[in-house]
Amino acid sequence: MWITPEEVLLANALWVSERANPFFILQRRKGHGRGGGFTGLLVGTLDVVLDSSARVAPYRILHQTGDSQVFWNIACGSSRKEITEHWEWLEANLLQTLSIFDNEEDITTFVKGKIQGIIAEENKNKQTLEDEDSGKFREAELKMRKLFGMPDEEKLVNYYSCSYFKGRVPRQGWVYLSVNHLCFYSFLLGKEVTLVVQWTDVTQLEKDAAVLFPESIRVSTRDTEHYFSMFLNINETFKLMEQLANIAMRQLLDNESFSVDRSLPKPCKTLKNVSTLKRDLDARAKNERYRAMFRLTQDERLDGHTDCTLWTPFAKMHVVGQMFVSNNYICFASREEDLCQLIIPLREVSIVEKADSSSVLPSPLSISTKNKMTFLFANLRDRDFLVQRISDFLQRTPDRVWSDSKEVLVSGSLVDIYVRFIHPVCGSFQLQISNIEAFSGDPPRQSWNIHFFEFGRGVCMYRTSKTRELVLNGIPESLRGELWLLFSGAQNEMDTHPGYYSELVEQAMGRCTLATEEIERDLHRSMPEHRAFQNEMGIAALRRVLTAYAFRNPNIGYCQAMNIVTSVLLLYCTEEQAFWLLVALCERMLPDYYNTRVVGALVDQAVFEELTRECLPLLYERMQELGVISTISLSWFLTLFLSVMPFDSAVLLVDCFFYEGIKVIFQVSLAVLHANMEQLLSCSDEGEAMTILGRYLDNVVNKQTVSAPIPHLHALLTSGDEPPPEIDIFELIKASYEKFGSLRSDVIEQMRFKQRLKVIQSLEDTAKRSVVRAIMTDSAFSLEELEELYVLFKAKHIMSCYWGASTTAAERHDPSLAYLEQYRIDRGQFSQLFTALAPWGCGAHTPTLAARLFRLLDQNKDGLINFKEFVTGLSKLCPRNATADGLRLGMVFFFLPEEKVKDYKYYLRMWAKEKEPKKETIKDLPKMNQEQFIELCKTLYNMFSEDPLEQELYHSIATVASLLLRIGEVGKKFSNNGARKPDSLCTLSPAVDSPLPVKEEPAGEGSSAEAQVTKALEEAQLEVTTTEEEAKDDTSVSSYSMVSAGSLQCEDIADDTVLIGCGDQRPGSVLDVDWAITFEQVLASMLTEPPLVDYFEKKLDIRAKMAACRFQRAVERQVSSSSEHEFSQLSG
């Protein structure tokens, strides 16, 4: 390829000149091609270690003028053919022009300008994304594609120098991290190492200490482990690997392919060796941390952050921390954890102004909100730029019309607030309190009133350690809904989407889906002990919230346990508020908990087991022996203890959860195990351990509640002689913070990632086993073969997701279906699998047969087939009774021409009936016409072209074709009932090696059929030409010519005819529409020829074909030596 001219001082260092003229030199890298020797090995090693482009581009063209000692590299090539094309272009277009110049500087300037113009023209139509990457990085990406055979759609994210342990010897090389693959390449003194691992195959990824090196990265798959070490920046490399593996797991989970963020701002200058994708992933990681820290929505994008101080009026001091600015929020977090946190929605901002600087308060910035709160930031580095960015975002923020209820939140009386919360806006169910005046004497409520007075109220409230202390002591029932909305971030979503819930309800109600059916079954199981759900009003509200969310998020729809959590939300919130809290739970706070496979809950269950092993090692070993941790903990996490603990106690844990997040659930779970450690260590079986924990949780009580206790259903069903003593929920929460309060949210996220890989891959393995068991009895393959086929089929499906396809990923993957119907492929991918796995190699006819079989299997005509349909078709190609079933399927291919559309389910039903005890029939298949017969003959010729017994097979099929031609003519006469006088038929000899001459007669009925077949095959021979090796094969040529000269009696076909290809019908020829044969006639005729019977009864080694298919996308390694032909071309 042409490259931007680069200055080269030492032209002959490690390069060999092969061509030269007065202005240009063509060179080859030493060691590339023949005769490299030790020098070649050494140069190749240096190229890999030093990341030289000469490894993938071993040819180059230099420009030099006569007296100059400076050379300019203007082109490079990976092959001799590529560099020769550039050399010939230079000789043809520039040599004559350059000879006109008198000044050598002008010659160099002209050449450089010409090359740069060519490059600009080539890059004119390229995407802007690629142009943003540096030249060095684009060179590395091209190198990756060349070394590992990747398509242009595969994008490199970054590459690093490292060592890879192959056996006991480390190999120094380069690891390339692309969107979908981890690749490694090394070349040391002739030893080449290549490795390609798909991220979707990774089961474990972790940093650990190797024997020889202090730090290394271990990448585990189902089959093996790979160790990488000696990174310059191992933390950066590992974080990037984590991100890419996470994207792959998301792809397996949701079937969503990676999409580049086109709105990413361009850097001020091109960053060296940093791709746009790397910046994109870095930005995504920062956005995720930002959203998790402040509980913001998924579409919130961090614009930037800066160090600053915030004046806290409640503490009368400046707090050091960071300000974060995004498209809808200004947030602040103190450097010291829990000291102060602040969220200011831009929709609330009324004034942003720069205050006067002073030595005490440098670069201050004042932000005022609509509820009369003012926040003072200082010590801002670039205050003017920050104000401009905030101003830009404010201009994009739509104006809002606030309801009266907002004013109530700020300045309303206690009575006003109470009325607002119990008012059934969309049907809310509040726990009734005897009288409003009780509020003023309620200590928790008084504490919160004081807190609101000092720290503010609403979304702009200062959140401090005092806030957390109040939450741990319990939120008053009258404030629970308001504070849940505030701490979860649901308040912001509800405020920015007015009327959204009511629209969803209107659209969703009345629809009948799988989710609505499941909702109806669970409605009356949702807190049946609570009187709010003992009447139709409460049930109807719960139905509307769950149905609206299922309509909003069909990927989740409805999952058991959502009804329990939602019913509790409705006790303290309006329907709309409960809906947005449910959105926050399912989509942010408990990610993937409520999808069809409860992946998130399984991941946190695995995290809980790991935490138990670290914090309670003795108990962990005993619980593992009993196998009880996974049994008990799933319901704890899915329902936030609401289903296993008395309501008044569990709701206090929900308070803590909305403020602290999932870490409080882990803490309390560990505290429960710790409190029962002695009894659990002494228990004898799983049932006893579950009984101990169940009774303990049943007796966790809230001694501060003023309302009548609500009976717990689990407690009512649990019997025991002497129940254990009551446990105060506040004491349990306090113990969890004292013993396990050091647990950090970022540590949990790291552990979640580690376990997510294992859980999702385990679920994929379970799905594979379920699919194989479901279809094993109906297929012709063993258990191991079906598992291999499933892996290949799924790999094609996944590949279509990230390398482009005719349909979207959502159309190809429906999680609501059974496992064997979830993954689907289109016709192009099926054709690739058909070509690789089918027992018949049909040459040019293979795509046609694949397309016809695909149409036959595509029952719903959506252009996609699932794994069950795929195995059904392949089983017919590789049956146990190969002759009957295989020929039948092959015949159906030709009974169904491309232009006809029929109900193919009929034929599938007919095949299914073959396994029934009743007598098998094949008479329902339609007859084959003359056009289909011609296609069949041509296809059979192609099928036998590479068989060791091709000559015998050609003889046999020629005999069968001649016999079927006569059968068709005889059948036509009988069908015409003598209406027309039959003409004499050609005498066709069944003996292929003793042909009879063709009688000359007019173009009647008898000769027309033979003529059509002969003409079509004559045209077919012209479509495919043989290679030099095939032309020298006398046996192959003689077998083809014997077919043409003996069996079909065509005088126009030469002796060296090659009857392969699929030609169209000859212009002007007319097919005999009355000619037809049946399947019984074809099958009976073929069964008379032993070579054909042996061919179709030959058992297929499907495992060998699957192994070849697995390595079809194997690494395309560089050819280390040039052919004599290439070298002679160059030197000549």
TrEMBL record:
It comes from the Eukaryota. One of its GO terms (biological process) is system process. Keywords: Calcium, GTPase activation, Metal-binding, Repeat. Residues 985-1010 are annotated as: Disordered. Residues 474-661 form the Rab-GAP TBC domain. The keyword Metal-binding applies. GO terms for molecular function: calcium ion binding; GTPase activator activity. InterPro entries: EF-hand-dom_pair (IPR011992), EF_Hand_1_Ca_BS (IPR018247), EF_hand_dom (IPR002048), GRAM (IPR004182), PH-like_dom_sf (IPR011993), Rab-GAP-TBC_dom (IPR000195), Rab-GAP_TBC_sf (IPR035969), TCB1D9/TCB1D9B_PH-GRAM1 (IPR036014). PROSITE patterns: EF_HAND_1 (PS00018), EF_HAND_2 (PS50222), TBC_RABGAP (PS50086). Gene3D superfamilies: EF-hand, Pleckstrin-homology domain (PH domain)/Phosphotyrosine-binding domain (PTB), putative rabgap domain of human tbc1 domain family member 14 like domains, Ypt/Rab-GAP domain of gyp1p, domain 1, Ypt/Rab-GAP domain of gyp1p, domain 3. Pfam families: GRAM, RabGAP-TBC. Residues 845-880 form the EF-hand domain. May act as a GTPase-activating protein for Rab family protein(s). This is TBC1 domain family member 9B.
